[in-house]
């Protein structure tokens, strides 16, 4: 399925990785041979469940870990030969918020500007511009310790941009944020991407990848198992999806799945899965044959409490590709706008 991992559409490559492997000292093979090219200006999403290898990959691309095998060029610089040049040309927003709570928002950005060697004469203007960009201009002189989790994340993102890098890595930037805070960060990311900055985002939120990314790679067990635009990936799932709600108990869902598979209701290549609510059938012309299935289920004495026909979502793509659903508990965005370290809870 990985047919277009090396596509750049004639643009220069912000990231060019070939055969990248990373094995930790304890023998854990976290990354197992990744080939990937991210063209300049792209909003690229790296999607995977907990432990799939997203952070390890981002760390090898940003010189925090040295790959066990393979080669990586970032902004034209080899991560092994010219790690300093790589670091000068990237921004990195880690999972853990790195703002200093004792400092104001402005002081946090000023500190980063000094650390990144932004010329003194340019600093004040740059800081104002960044505070504005992340909607923190009004609270620029307030201590970061008073900020909500979402505000800290925005401040963190601003500091990652202080040296105006052409490429920014965002490692699960919205984990633990409530939907409102998440949406504001999304707007901000879209804004910096529109300015021409290449973004490499890791996420376990399917809707985040769907909404923001030009192209997505799905990583599973340290390997890329699919790459494409959200629309391309959805097309690969194909057909329509019929969700049928069946109450649990007495193997009702398993029996319903069996009927959907074995009866002559759908084409032979239909895909039937038992879900948290009942069963889900992916098939060409699911709409047309849906009522036949409902009749067959009724004849078998199986209660149906609801049904719905829809186009595939990225959730379906993920399920089809990996055979797993991303943990819905982890993906739910119903947390409060938490502060401090909880923002980065894994
Ligand atoms: P998460 O969403 O939990 O951050 P991830 O997709 O970023 O997951 P990684 O953190 O890259 O995944 O982890 C990939 C694999 O490597 C996991 O099995 C993890 O337990 C293991 N791992 C991560 N860091 C280390 C380490 N320092 N030493 C040994 N194994 C590690």
TrEMBL record:
Alphabetical list of InterPro entries matching this protein: AAA+_ATPase (IPR003593), ABC_transporter-like_ATP-bd (IPR003439), DrrA (IPR005894), DrrA1/2-like_C (IPR025302), P-loop_NTPase (IPR027417)
Domain ABC transporter, residue spans: 15-246
Organism encoding this protein: Halorubrum trapanicum
Listed name of the protein: ABC-2 type transport system ATP-binding protein
UniProt lineage: Archaea, Methanobacteriati, Methanobacteriota, Stenosarchaea group, Halobacteria
GO molecular function: ATP binding; ATP hydrolysis activity
Annotated TM spans: none
Region (Disordered): 327-346
GO biological process: daunorubicin transport; doxorubicin transport
Compositional bias annotation for Basic and acidic residues: 329-338
Pfam families given in the database record: ABC_tran, DrrA1-3_C
Membership in a protein family: Belongs to the ABC transporter superfamily. Drug exporter-1 (DrugE1) (TC 3.A.1.105) family.
Keywords: ATP-binding, Nucleotide-binding, Transport
């Amino acid at each position: 399925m990985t047919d277009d991992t090396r596509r750049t559409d004639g643009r220069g490559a912000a990231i060019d990785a070939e055969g990248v492997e990373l094995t930790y000292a304890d023998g854990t093979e976290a990354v197992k041979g990744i080939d990937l090219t991210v063209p300049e200006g792209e909003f690229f999403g790296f999607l995977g469940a907990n432990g799939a290898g997203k952070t390890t990959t981002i760390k090898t691309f940003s010189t925090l870990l040295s790959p066990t095998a393979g080669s990586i060029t970032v902004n034209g610089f080899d991560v092994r030969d010219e790690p300093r040049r790589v670091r000068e040309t990237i921004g990195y927003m880690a999972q853990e918020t790195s703002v200093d709570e004792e400092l104001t928002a402005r002081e946090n950005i000023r500190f980063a500007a000094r650390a990144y060697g932004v010329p003194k004469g340019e600093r004040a203007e740059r800081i104002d511009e960044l505070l504005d960009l992340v909607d923190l201009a009004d609270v620029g002189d307030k201590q970061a310790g008073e900020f909500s989790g979402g505000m800290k994340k925005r401040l963190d993102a601003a500091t990652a941009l202080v040296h105006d890098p052409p490429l920014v890595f965002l490692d699960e930037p919205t984990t633990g944020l409530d939907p409102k805070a998440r949406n504001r960060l999304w707007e901000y990311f879209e804004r910096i991407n529109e300015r021409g900055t290449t973004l490499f985002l890791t996420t376990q939120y399917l809707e985040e990848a769907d909404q923001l990314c030009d192209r997505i790679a799905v990583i599973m067990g340290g390997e890329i198992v699919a790459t494409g635009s959200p629309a391309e990936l959805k097309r690969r799932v194909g057909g329509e999806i019929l969700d049928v709600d069946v109450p649990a108990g007495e193997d009702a869902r398993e029996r319903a799945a069996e009927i959907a598979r074995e009866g002559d209701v759908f084409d032979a290549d239909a895909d039937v899965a038992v879900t948290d609510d009942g069963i889900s059938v992916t098939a060409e012309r699911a709409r047309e044959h849906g009522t036949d299935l409902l009749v067959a289920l009724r004849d078998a004495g199986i209660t149906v409490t609801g049904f719905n026909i829809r186009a595939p979502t990225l959730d379906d793509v993920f399920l089809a590709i990996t055979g797993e659903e991303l943990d819905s508990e982890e993906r739910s965005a119903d947390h409060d706008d938490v502060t401090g370290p909880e923002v980065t809870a894994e």
